[in-house]
């Protein structure tokens, strides 16, 4: 099995003034500003230069410290080298690195951008002993301009600058937050330095933006911490400097608007967002916690919802991975992300997640000793690189061998055989204990010494033969009894050997490898337990595993059940149905738990409750989706769940009640409770969720639930409508939703029934003055409120019934005429008449009816 680990590349010992850098990072971590200790650190694309921007507090001064790694260290010893150490009275905005892939080795071109619009270009060369200043230029045209952020995109330098207004009019004061503009200048690199083109303004009157380059696309992210217009922070822009195309995007909807400014040459931000001002008032996208360009036109986003997404260059937002819900709760946690070919690395606090970008599968987790900053090294762009106070690290792949080699097995034959013999005695002891009528507990020691059972000795000989002749296998018809026994025991013996090998490896493992071995061991044990009969002993053992190794058990459950969360938030599984039968097995003891507020902490939980409790701890947002998935696997039909009045036994306890039983203090998680009740698709649960929402006063969600479930069952429709009509009778909070509520009125509801419900639930203060008389209390319903409903129901009642229309309608053709009858025919009353009628005389004619 492939595992990942961090390998230290350097401890800064091969960098100039490396000890000073290490001390600075260590001191920054110890200060209160720990969250931003790495925000001012820059690493060059080749990983050979580390720059630290220092801003002096309460002063405009800033320092730049540079630490370099020479490819030929002897040059540093033989010649005097020049470090790039600056102290300026103007703040440094950022650094830009120019692509020098076509030049000779050891050459780096760096641009230092200052807030006042100045730019210094420096060149590093080992042959010339370090850093040398090439030139100083004015990047901006206006001497009063202030640069806020800067980046480099292909052959353009792009920045966001502030242009103070010359007028103090009311209009300019109101638009003070839109005093920035986006500018660009083309450049060419020659032997003398950097040759700049003219300044071109791409957009006017925009808010403060951070410009981020990703390939040929530039992203404009609002600087939210100084932005007073909340609606503007909901969106960000992309801009193609070559084609002058702007796109307005959001972190929830993707592309909102596309504008081509080629004809106008310059764009105005306020005119640009006018076309989508309506959607800005209704969207509520999550906040952007962190971001990183991919270099190919896409942008990685870490959102406050816990999702890691990619905003693609075509404007499509693709969700990749959902972090556990408790990862981003601490605002002081350092987070960093980057992409390396098909692997996404995400460091949150002291945990690094490795995710497959193509499918969103979590490949591995690495525990970090120190928080770090992820960066891409152009010389090894496929491997995640990280900087921390301890040095530079790279992620490598290691093979965690779960199966020992043959030579190892032969060298440890005595140890393995002893373990296997012990396992045989323990299994035999359990078997004979079940068959024994005695109350005395049978132990393995009694089997050994008492001569009660000789089979373990024979099996021990078989095991010894198995260990010494693993390469010899006899199969088919020619196999002897001894060979057949070996074949039947082969898989069990291998499992025992592998398990013992993992235990031995854990004892000898280092601290870094201990976590991976522990996770492997827990996963194997959980998989073994779920594949066997879940008796009381196994269930207690499974509970102890979840209690002692909660994190490893959660990871193991995701792997064993093969749980996957797609972008829409739904769960899928590829686990076999036999495994789900064990997970969802009904347990009678859970009936007592549901009568209490929550499950006791020391209770032995069934498998399903164990999984739900673990999920509630690490990923509570998955619980409703997991309940839906469990109901599908259990074969619970949505049609059969609409039956009322069915008394539920402990063995047929609904899954949603079993989930709710493990949630501690359910009153503190009412949103989760409502979701679980609705996902159950049961009428009683839906009505319970509806009453919770009514108690919380969330009328918008109340009407959504009513509209959704009224269409699925006539009985539930009537109960929901009656409940909401009672609420209408008591207050006016549902007035904005009355049109929707009246549309949900059942077909069999009459005017009399509606009036009875309203009068019965009318507040007591209104009954003294009559139900529909004027009153000063605005919370009472009036006849005007109920008039549309009563009119609709009255029209339906007076409408002619169509039930017997087919009977009352006359046919298109008249029915056939009945046979004609003779009116003067004498009625036969005597036997003689009957005889005469049956035998008429000759020559006479009698007409019969």
From TrEMBL:
Matches recorded under PANTHER family: BLOC-2 COMPLEX MEMBER HPS6, HERMANSKY-PUDLAK SYNDROME 6 PROTEIN
Bias-annotated ranges (Polar residues): 839-849
Gene Ontology cellular component list: BLOC-2 complex; lysosomal membrane
Start and end residues of each BLOC-2 complex member HPS6 N-terminal domain: 3-395
Domain annotation BLOC-2 complex member HPS6 C-terminal: ranges: 422-820
Gene: LOC113589766
Segments for region (Disordered): 804-849
Protein name (database record): HPS6 biogenesis of lysosomal organelles complex 2 subunit 3
Domain of life: Eukaryota
GO biological process: lysosome localization; protein localization to membrane
A Pfam family of this chain: HPS6_C
Source species: Electrophorus electricus
């Amino acid at each position: 099995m492939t595992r990942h680990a961090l390998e230290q590349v350097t401890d800064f010992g091969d960098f100039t003034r490396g000890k000073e850098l290490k001390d600075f990072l260590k001191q920054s971590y110890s200060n209160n500003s720990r969250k931003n200790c790495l925000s001012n650190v820059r690493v060059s694309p080749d990983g050979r230069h580390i720059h630290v921007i220092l801003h002096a507090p309460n002063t405009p001064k800033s320092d730049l410290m540079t630490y370099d790694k020479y490819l030929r260290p002897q040059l540093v010893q033989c010649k005097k080298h020049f470090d790039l150490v600056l102290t300026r009275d103007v703040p440094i905005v950022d650094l830009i690195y120019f692509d020098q892939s076509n030049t000779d080795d050891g050459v780096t071109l760096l641009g230092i951008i200052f807030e006042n619009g100045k730019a210094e270009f420096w060149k590093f060369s080992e042959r010339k002993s370090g850093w040398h200043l090439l030139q100083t230029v004015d990047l901006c045209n206006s001497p009063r301009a202030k640069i806020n952020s800067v980046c480099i995109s292909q052959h353009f330098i792009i920045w966001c600058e502030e242009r103070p207004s010359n007028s103090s009019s009311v209009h300019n004061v109101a638009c003070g937050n839109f005093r920035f503009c986006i500018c660009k200048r083309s450049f060419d690199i020659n032997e003398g330095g950097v040759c700049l083109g003219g300044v071109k303004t791409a957009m006017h009157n925009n808010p403060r933006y951070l410009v981020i380059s990703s390939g040929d696309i530039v992203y404009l992210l609002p600087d939210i911490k100084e932005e007073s217009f909340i609606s503007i922070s909901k969106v960000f822009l992309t801009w193609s400097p070559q084609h002058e195309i702007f796109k307005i995007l959001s972190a929830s909807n993707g592309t909102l608007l596309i504008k081509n400014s080629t004809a106008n040459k310059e764009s105005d931000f306020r005119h640009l967002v006018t076309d989508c001002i309506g959607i800005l008032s209704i969207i509520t996208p999550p906040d952007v916690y962190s971001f990183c360009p991919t270099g190919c036109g896409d942008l990685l986003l870490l959102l406050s919802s816990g999702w890691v997404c990619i905003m693609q260059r075509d404007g499509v937002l693709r969700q990749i991975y959902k972090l556990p819900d408790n990862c981003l709760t601490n605002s002081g946690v350092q987070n960093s992300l980057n992409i390396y070919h098909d692997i996404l690395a995400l460091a949150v606090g002291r945990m690094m997640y490795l995710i497959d970008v193509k499918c969103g599968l979590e490949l591995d987790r690495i525990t970090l000793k120190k928080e770090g900053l992820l960066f891409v090294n152009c010389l090894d762009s496929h491997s995640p690189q990280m900087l921390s106070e301890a040095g530079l690290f790279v992620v490598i792949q290691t093979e965690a061998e779960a199966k020992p080699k043959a030579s190892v097995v032969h060298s440890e034959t005595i140890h393995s055989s002893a373990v296997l013999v012990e396992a045989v005695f323990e299994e035999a002891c359990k078997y004979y204990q079940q068959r024994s009528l005695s109350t005395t507990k049978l132990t393995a020691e009694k089997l050994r010494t008492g001569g009660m059972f000789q089979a373990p000795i024979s099996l021990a000989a078989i095991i010894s033969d198995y260990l010494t002749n693993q390469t010899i296998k006899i199969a088919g018809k020619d196999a002897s009894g001894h060979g057949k026994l070996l074949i039947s025991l082969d898989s069990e013996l291998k499992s025992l050997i592998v398990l013992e090998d993992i235990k031995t490896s854990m004892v000898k493992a280092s601290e870094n490898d201990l976590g991976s071995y522990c996770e492997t061991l827990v996963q194997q044990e959980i998989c073994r337990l779920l594949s066997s009969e879940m008796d009381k002993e196994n269930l207690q053992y499974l509970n102890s595993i979840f209690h002692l190794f909660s994190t490893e058990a959660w990871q193991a459950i995701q792997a064993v059940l093969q749980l996957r969360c797609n972008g829409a938030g739904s769960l899928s599984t590829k686990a076999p149905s036999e495994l789900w039968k064990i997970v969802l097995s009904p347990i009678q003891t859970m009936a007592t738990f549901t009568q209490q507020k929550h499950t006791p902490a020391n209770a032995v939980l069934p498998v399903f409750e164990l999984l739900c409790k673990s999920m509630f701890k690490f990923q509570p947002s998955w619980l409703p989706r997991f309940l839906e998935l469990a109901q599908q696997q259990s074969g619970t039909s949505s049609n059969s769940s609409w039956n009322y009045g069915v008394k539920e036994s402990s063995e047929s306890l609904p899954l949603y009640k079993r989930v709710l039983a493990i949630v501690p203090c359910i009153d503190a998680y009412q949103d989760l409770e409502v979701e679980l009740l609705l996902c159950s698709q049961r009428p009683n649960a839906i009505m319970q969720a509806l009453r919770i929402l009514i108690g919380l006063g969330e009328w918008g969600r109340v009407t959504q639930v009513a509209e959704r479930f009224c269409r699925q069952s006539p009985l539930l429709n009537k109960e929901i409508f009656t409940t909401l009509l009672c609420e209408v009778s008591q207050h006016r909070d549902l007035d904005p939703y009355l049109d929707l509520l009246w549309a949900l009125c059942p077909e069999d509801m009459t005017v009399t029934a509606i009036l009875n419900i309203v009068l019965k639930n009318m507040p007591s203060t209104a009954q003294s003055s009559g139900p529909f008389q004027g009153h000063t209390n605005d919370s009472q319903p009036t006849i005007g409120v109920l008039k549309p409903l009563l009119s609709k129901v009255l029209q339906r009642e007076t409408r002619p019934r169509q039930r017997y229309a087919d009977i009352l309608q006359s046919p298109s053709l008249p029915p056939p005429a009945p046979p004609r009858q003779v009116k003067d025919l004498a009625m036969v009353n005597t036997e003689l008449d009957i005889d005469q009628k049956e035998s008429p005389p000759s020559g006479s004619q009698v007409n019969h009816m």
